[in-house]
Every structure is written in C-alpha cells, then in structure tokens.
Design brief:
Strand order of the largest sheet of chain A: 3-9-10-16-13-12-11-24-27-23-22
Number of helices of chain A: 15
Oligomer: homodimer
Distance between the termini of chain A: 33 Å
Number of strands of chain A: 27
CATH topology of the largest domain in chain A: BirA Bifunctional Protein, domain 2
Shape of chain A: globular
Structural class of chain A: alpha+beta
Mean pLDDT of chain A: 96
Strand content of chain A: 25-35%
CATH superfamily of the largest domain in chain A: Bira Bifunctional Protein, Domain 2
Largest sheet of chain A: 11 strands, mixed
Helix content of chain A: 25-40%
Number of domains of chain A: 3
Radius of gyration of chain A: 26 Å
C-alpha cells in the first residue's frame, strides 16, 4: 500500500498524467458523475480554505466587503454588452424549466413541459451583468462611490476539455466588482488588486509570477484592459493565475448606471473586476510537487508538521506520547498546525509515504532509541533531507525549518523560471525554442494579426506585456515592424 | 432622511410588512432581477459571515471537515430514493442545454437547439444523492468510517411564494453528510448536530429554541427521523431554524453503498445529514428587532460599538478624536469591533438613526461638553436606554454592557415565548387559542390523519415532539385516543 501510494508516473515521462495521478493520490479531488465537474475532497478543500482565508483578509485590508448575488442570470442580460456575450454565450449552462414530474411511462421523472420558463436563465459564468444591473439601484451620486464589493461563489462554464482544478466546468472563485467616479480610480483599483494577487502568489503560494497586461486578443470579454499574473509550471508552460480588469464604462453603459458628479452632472460609472479561482490549486500543485507527490508551502499546508511515533508495544507508545504531547502543545502555541499520528492501524512506513504524498512540509519521527538519546528525526518534504537532532530546541528548529522551506520553494521556482526564460530575436529561433517550453521574450509589432499567426504556427500566445523589466524598443521578429518592448510568449494551460 | 430611515410600519400594524421593510432599510438584502432570488448586501452578508465562522468552528470542533460537491445533479439520481424524489422533483431548476447562439433574427441570443443535453441536470436542492453516489467510491471497509463531511454551498428550490431570507429560491447553507458503520452512531451524530445548532441559536443568536423530533408528515424526504430546533417569532409563529436527519440506510441502498464490517460481511452504510441556512438571518431579525429597526446580539454584530463625535468645527473634532482614538485601540484590544464614525458628510442625527436601524448594540456619543466633564453618552440598542457616564472605565463598561445585551436579548425572547405558550386540552379551545398565535402544547394520537385534519382546519402543524419537558400521557384532543405526551402545535413560516 505504501508502495502503491508512491507509484507515480514520473514528471519527465508524462507531465500531464503525473498531475492527474497526483491530484487523486494526494486526496485533493476526483472526477464526479457530472461531466467536467470535480469533487473537492476534504484535504484539497482544506488547502483552498487556507487560500480563501488569506485572500479574504487581504481584500478586507484593502477596504473591500463581501456580498452575494444570484446564481442565475436572465439570458437577455448577457446580450447587453456586445463583447461579453461573444465571450460567454457559447459555454453556458441554460435553465429552461422549473419542475420535473413523474414519467407517464413509469421511467422515473421527466421535465414537465408545462413548466417552461418565459425567459431562460443561465448559470453565471461570471457576474458582471447581474451585478451591474444591481448597482444601478445603489448608485445615484458621487457620494455612493466607490463601491468595493467582492463575492465568493461558484461559477459555471461549459468547457469541452477539462482538467481538475485547471479547467473545470464548475469552479469556485472570488470575483471583485468595483464602481468608481473616475477612470483613474478604476484603473488604480484594477492594478492594486493585481498587486494583491501577486503578493499572495509569491508570499503565500511561493509561486513567482510575472505581472503584465494582456494583448487585445487575450483580454476579458468586455474589458478595456486585462492585467494578469503569469506563472511557469514545471513543464515550461504558462499558467494564467489571476486577472484584474479595467472595464471602463462598458457595463455602466450596458446597464445604464450613471451618477451625479460633483458638478451635479450625470456621468457613467467606471468599473473594475478581478478574480482568482480554484485554478490556483493547480498552480500550487504544479509549481512545487515532485515525483513523490505533493509539496506544499508551509503557509498553505493544512498540516505543517506531522509527528509519527515508532514503537513496538503499548508501553513504548505511551513513553513516546508522554514526550510528544507537550511538544504538540508548544508547537500549537507558536501557531504551527501539527498532527500527532498515533493511529495503530497503519504502520510507520505507510504513514511516511502518505504524508509525503500529501506534501506535509515537516515530519518528525521519534522511537525508543530517540527517547534514550534525547533525539528526534526531522525530515523536510521539499528536499527530502532528514537528520537526527536534539529533542531540546526542536520547537525553534521546526519553526526555522518551516520558514526555510517557504523561502526555498519560492527560490527554487524562481530559479527554474529564470533558467527557462530567454530572449529570442528571429522567428526561426523562436519556432525551435518554443518546442523546449519556457518563456520567450521577443519583439512583436503589437498587432492582433501577427499574434494570431504566431499562435497558429507555434501554439504560443502572448502571455503578457510585462509591467517590469527591459523596455528597450526593437523590431518584431515576424514582420520586422517596430516593437515598443519585448513581450512574453509561451504555450499555456 | 433620518426620519425616513426610521419611518417603519409597526410590528403591531403589519408584522410581515415590518419585516420586509426592515430587511431593506437595515441594508441586509434586496430582491434581484431573478424571481425569488435575493441579493445579500454587504451589511447582511457580514452578519452571515459571523454566523458561518462560528458554526464552522463548532463543526470542526466536533470532528468535521469541509469538502465541495457539484452544483448540478443528473436527473436520474433524484429518482433513486422514492421519498426523496417526491419531495424535491416539483421544485427543481432544470438545465437542458449547454450553449446559446446568436438569434438568426437578430434579437440577442437564443438557446442553441443543437446543444441539448442527453440527460438533464438539476441544480442541487440538497446534495444527498450526488454525495452518496460519491461516497460509494470512498467507502469499502469499516476502517473508512465514519465520514464526517460538511459543505458550504448554494442550493436552489423553485418556491412559489418567497420572502427574503425566510424562503428564497436560491439560498446559502451548509449541509453535513455523514456515513457510519452502525445505526446507533448515525443517530447519535444526528442528535449531536442538533445540539450544536441549539447551542449556536441560544448562545450566539440569543434565540431560544425547542429541540424535538418531527412527526412523519413533516419529516425530510428520505429520512427515518428528522430532528429540529423551533423558534418563536414575535408574531407567535414558529420558525424551523435547523434540522438534522437520521437517514437510516435509505441513501446507501439507493446508491448501493456497502462496507465490509468487522466480521468481514457486507453491510449498508448508515447516514445522517443536517443543515442550517440563510434562513437563520430571518430568525435573528424577527426574534429581536423592534419598530426602530434591527436589533443584533453583540456576538453576531459586525459592528459592536459605534462612536459618534458631536462637534461644531474642526478644532472640536480634533480634540474629540484625540480622546477617542486611544479608546478605539483599547476596545479592539479587548476583541470588540468598533467603528469611529467621524465622516463629515452626515450629521449626528442621521448617524444615530442609521446605526439604530442597523442594530449596532452600543453607541457612544461624545461632544465638547463631554470633553470638559470627562464623560461620554452611552446607549444600548436593545432597550434604547442612554446615560452619561465617566469616560474613565468606559472600556469595562462597554464590555459589560455587550455581555448584558447578549443575555438580556435571550431572556427577553425566552420570556416572550413562555408567555405565548400554553397547554390546551380540547379541540374547541385549540381552535380559539391558535388564532392568538404562539405555541400550544396538546395531546395528539400520533396519526398522520389527525395531524392532517388539524392542519386543514386550523393551519397549525405539529412543530415537533419535544425532547425535553413534560412527558405525561393523555388523550388526543381531536380523537380521544391515547397520546404518549403533549406535542407542540403552531402556525409556522
């Protein structure tokens, strides 16, 4: 069983299969009976809860409040904003009836044709439309602005090809929807929230990200600008991990939301929206994990430290427990989440393998000999290094190790990204280089046509026009036309 | 504006209208564009978040973990359990298509007839079916049991008559779904969670509840026993505030979920489920609030203390702020959530009215004369009593007052319930008494027929067979047949 747990496909053999197996073996999620929808299992959900709690604190610290808007949206709302409907109508779950009835032929229940809705409702793929229809009643004067609201919710997009966490028909997310009196304020808000996402990704998930702006082709349907954080997975592909949109006055115009400004003149309201989803779980898993299973950054690990006793009989277990119980209390007092696994229906070898697969950052093991010697074995999951250290001082050592793992994971991921990022100046080189994976910094003439051509010929897209980094102008690698700066190309999830 | 805020329908004039107005004026929720669905506004949602957090802690303290299951359920799943489908099929939102397309006639978007689902999906009205279909893969041996899982989710029931928080088509809730090796364990779990709900209602919401068992007529569709907590609203009607179900092996049989018991024999798994919803918001509002607006128990108030400065000019405001800022810090250190409202675009009178309508438990007001005298005016929302007290010691006084309000609200609600509860022995008396509202303890012969007759003739139902209280046998007030004990009748929401 311990062997079976760790019997993974290797990343180098089949990265995609490795990921799918890991999600299941680490007990994070599984496919459900409904196509494209997953079940998030307790261990996976516990990680998501830690993410939620931290993000929620960060949203509140930047002045946002939570609210809740309806799951269902009248079909006609979608059509109000021209780009928005193009982007979302094709993948909607449509509610057409409100009742089932017994099948007259005796086969369970059937849709009651008499219970057809006058106007169909769609399950929200995102909530701009229903929210702006609501804001219309909330906003009258500049005094009512800004509105800084966030919603934690489930959304639904009928995706053809789905992968757990990365792309599922239903997913969990938060969506911020803000309303402002000026263009500048709305843009500032969109950029502020991108910074929040970047801090969260780097400081909590230990995932380095590149902040940037999307090209027109990759923009959110209905936005004037889409800001993004892009992370690199271990196969060199990019994962868009969070986006923040400056929506201009598009939704205000679509839903006729105006306010009286300070000069007492009516004006359309300015908007932003921003969201991250359970897709972050995919980013977390794929950035750090290895051929032995999940690797979790301590700040998001549901269990940061597991303690496994090694014993032959009850007397030994009792002696170990007497030593361990005060340690558990000490660790908890330091705010460290710890599990003492003294269950006697699983052997230590199985426990070791299980917690390794589940990515618990630090494992302490203590046996009869350790009791005699005043020692304990400590293992860190990121490097799998273990050593035997003095029991005294183990609390400090554990705390130190957790910090070290957190920063080591970030550094490792950053080093990896840097090693897989290069500059390319000719389209021929680009075509070769893109096969190796990774980020390519190249010049582009700024047109959708050139981007489309590159995508068709190489499957690479512009991940973003970076906010930071080298801004030297140059010439487009494809057309030779002027380019304002290098942008980031990659294949992506 | 301050007047308009407080210009409520009185409870005694029209209780139902008072409630509807209060929900809107206290900024808790509003109707949405989708029939029967509400928007929960930030202030209302903040109360719900406090409830969630507390309940979640209590669930975790009793060994439960959170998980997440799909929003959509295959239609055929509903039919698997005979009672369940009867209970829920009639009010389902049915998804039949997965795509919209541009209307060939140019009127926005229409359902794409080519995108019809092979099997319709329903939006979960409750998740027993999809969860037990999942548990089938999780449970093999007695070692896999118990499973103690909870889900925070939105659910949908197509209700004909809706009222904000009390009965809405979409609502937010938690649903616990547990799996056990023995009947006793599952029953114990159902009762344990009822105790958790009762503690939460009484200790946090300050809402006294009666714990009991539902009669067969009022049982959850698919349960062998439904436990309930019943609260009395100020109009004397009962509000079912939380239920916990012993499901026997019904869902295990419907989804073929068996486990190998300790004797290595296959056995069907035993189940419980339990839930509370945003309906609790309705219970909270209707139990404590008065003709001036919302009254909140301090433990669930997003703002426990508001401090309003009374000033003529900036110099006065500054002097007051210098005195108040350290007080704010002190209160926060004591874990008290406090808002210092020094906004200068609203006058004190408006602020007073607004916080009164919003039910903030304690209001401190401080003006120039208070500064001179070393005093502060303190008002408690529950009784509207105010007095001027010494500024020194105000932190202790505020903390004491918050405790006092919490217990006073509970006591007041309990006294009210007791004053509106009586024993009745003849059906004639019952018919008169039920018109006055309140709970009636009466003998009943235990048959669904008699209960049905009483319901038809008086609109009263059996709220529960209480777990506590007088268990003296008697004779049914309608049929004269033997009755094991008095049960509670009331009209209900």
């Amino acid at each position: 069983m311990a062997k079976e747990l760790k019997n993974f496909t290797k990343r180098s053999d089949n990265y995609s299969q490795w990921y799918n197996e890991l999600v299941v073996k680490a007990d994070l999620a599984e496919q459900s009976a409904v196509r494209g929808c997953m079940v998030i299992k307790p261990y996976g959900y516990a990680i998501w809860e830690k993410m939620q709690r931290q993000l929620d604190d960060m949203f509140k610290a930047t002045g946002h409040q939570n609210a809740y808007f309806p799951l269902l949206i009248p079909k006609s709302f979608l059509s109000r904003e021209a780009d928005h409907v193009e982007g979302f109508a094709k993948e909607c779950a449509v509610v057409t009836h409100y009742r089932l009835k017994n099948d007259p032929e005796g086969n369970g229940v059937v849709v009651d044709p008499a219970a057809r809705l006058e106007e169909e409702l769609i399950i929200r793929p995102t909530s701009e439309t229903i929210i702006w229809n609501t804001y219309k009643n909330w906003i009258h004067s500049y005094r009512d602005l800004p509105i800084l609201v966030n919603q934690w919710a489930n959304v639904f997009r009928w995706e053809m090809r789905t992968r757990m966490f990365l792309r599922t028909a239903e997913f969990l997310w938060q969506e911020g929807h803000t309303a402002h009196a000026t263009r500048e304020e709305a843009e500032e808000e969109a950029r502020r929230m991108l910074e929040v996402y970047a801090s969260f990704a780097q400081d909590y998930m230990a995932v380095p990200v590149i902040k940037g702006v999307k090209s027109a082709n990759e923009r959110f349907a209905g936005a004037l600008d889409t800001y993004t954080i892009e992370a690199m997975m271990q196969d060199g592909k990019a994962l868009q991990s969070g986006t923040s949109h400056f929506l201009g006055q598009n939704f205000a115009k679509a839903f006729d939301v105006t306010f009286m400004n300070k000069d007492n003149k009516p004006e359309y309201v300015w908007a932003s929206s921003w969201g991250v989803s359970t897709r972050l779980m995919g980013a977390l898993i794929m950035t750090h994990s290895d051929d032995n299973g999940l690797v979790l950054p301590p700040k998001l690990a549901p269990i940061q430290v597991v303690i496994v006793p090694i014993y032959k009989d009850n007397a030994q277990l009792q002696a170990i427990s007497e030593k361990v119980n005060p340690l558990v209390d000490e660790l908890r007092k330091r705010g460290i989440s710890v599990k003492y696994d003294d269950a006697d229906n699983r052997r230590p070898g199985f426990k070791f393998a299980d917690y390794e697969v589940k990515g618990v950052p630090v494992r302490l093991a203590i046996g009869a000999r350790d009791l005699e010697n005043g020692t304990v074995e400590i293992m860190r999951r990121d490097t799998l290094e273990k050593e035997t250290v003095a029991f005294d001082g183990i609390v400090d050592e554990t705390a130190r190790l957790l910090d070290d793992i957190q920063s080591n994971l970030f550094k490792k991921a950053l080093d990896f990204r840097e090693s897989k990022t290069c500059e390319v100046d000719s389209y021929d080189d680009f075509k070769k280089k893109i096969e190796e994976g990774g980020f390519i910094l190249a010049h582009w003439d700024g047109t959708p046509e050139t981007e489309e051509k590159i995508k068709e010929e190489t499957k690479a897209t512009i991940r973003c026009i970076p906010m930071d980094g080298d801004t030297t102008p140059g010439k487009c690698m494809v057309t030779g036309k002027p380019s304002q700066r290098r942008v980031i190309f990659a294949r992506s999830y």
